[in-house]
Backbone:
């Protein structure tokens, strides 16, 4: 058996470099994800994600959901399809002023548990038809003591039960 052709050697080297780069990026992203959310005593810290936003994982009806923290939103909103999947009871309809204009949606009710121990029972949420991801609004955030500085959102857990 003779030597392998040069093109095969080059292709193998490039494939190995590509795999190494892929594994390195995946490892870096996993580390960033792990350090993004930290509970230290009675303070919860959420670091800004690479997309420039704060994300807070929680649950509605036992299902894990990642919320985009939106201090410009009056209320918490979820995609209408998600509200249907969760079987959340509809208690009315609403008009919501969004970045895309006025949208008609449904008012639904559900129990919200956020990582770090924050819980809101029977939270009224807007279920909007074209919303791409759940938004955590000031109806929840306004009940908490929090501050944002240098890419870190700090929430005091002690004495700030919504």
Residues:
């Amino acid at each position: 058996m003779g030597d392998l052709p040069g093109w095969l050697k080059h292709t193998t080297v490039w494939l190995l470099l590509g795999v190494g780069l892929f594994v390195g990026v995946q490892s870096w992203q996993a580390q960033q994800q792990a350090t993004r959310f930290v509970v230290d005593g009675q303070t919860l810290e959420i670091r800004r994600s690479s997309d420039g936003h704060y994300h807070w994982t929680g649950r509605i009806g036992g299902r894990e959901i990642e919320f985009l923290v939106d201090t410009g939103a009056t209320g918490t909103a979820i995609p209408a399809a998600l509200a249907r999947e969760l079987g959340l009871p509809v208690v009315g309809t609403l008009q919501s002023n969004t970045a895309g204009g006025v949208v008609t949606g449904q008012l639904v009710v559900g129990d919200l548990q956020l990582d770090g121990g924050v819980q809101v029972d029977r939270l009224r949420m807007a279920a909007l038809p074209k919303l791409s991801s759940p938004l955590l609004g000031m109806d929840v955030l306004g009940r908490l003591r929090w501050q944002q500085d240098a890419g870190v959102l700090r929430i005091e857990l002690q004495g700030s039960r919504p």
Q: What stands out?
A: Residues 1-34 form one domain. The chain has three helices and eleven strands. The mean pLDDT is 88. The longest strand covers residues 101-114.
